[in-house]
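This section describes the prediction task in plain terms. A model, or a person checking by hand, is given the sequence of a single protein chain and must write out its three-dimensional structure as a string of tokens. No templates, partner chains or ligands are provided. The sample shown here is typical of the held-out split.
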Amino acid sequence: MSHTKGKLQYRKNPWDEGKYDLRPDDSTPWAYAPVAHVKGDKRVTGGNGEANARRLAACWNACDGLPQDALDGGWTALGLSQHAKQLEDENVALKAEVKRLQEMLENFTSSAYWRLKDLEADALKVENEKLRKDAERYRWLRVADATMIKSLADEEGMTPEGEEFDEAIDAAMKEGK
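The expected answer:
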């Protein structure tokens, strides 16, 4: 079973005195059948059909978008209002938490950035020191004579390789050879 979707509007029924029709508010021509007819209480002076129709349309429209089970479950306007207030309060709290987390992230990102820059700077200093030592070794080799270079060889006349060669040059440079 399905109900008429969307909002309703009310209008005086031109063919039946004192009767008001509730119809979909979707530009449907008034020639189509109404959702409901509302008659006023004849005991009320001047009738109250229009007031009843207006109230029914307002209630219907206020419930637009709510699932049927919420209405069947006995939700009232007060209950809906309280639930809406609770959701608004939760929304405010969640927005505050998002703001707090954004600030935390910004602070963390900023401090992490500078920590990373410090680590990069330290790594560059270490790399620079290695390159400086390599340059000193190169300059020493450039001016070294054959005797100085032979002094780097071991007892078998083998010249060391890699880091051992660097260490041998560093030792020779310290000795002033």
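For orientation: The first strand starts at residue 8 and ends at 12.
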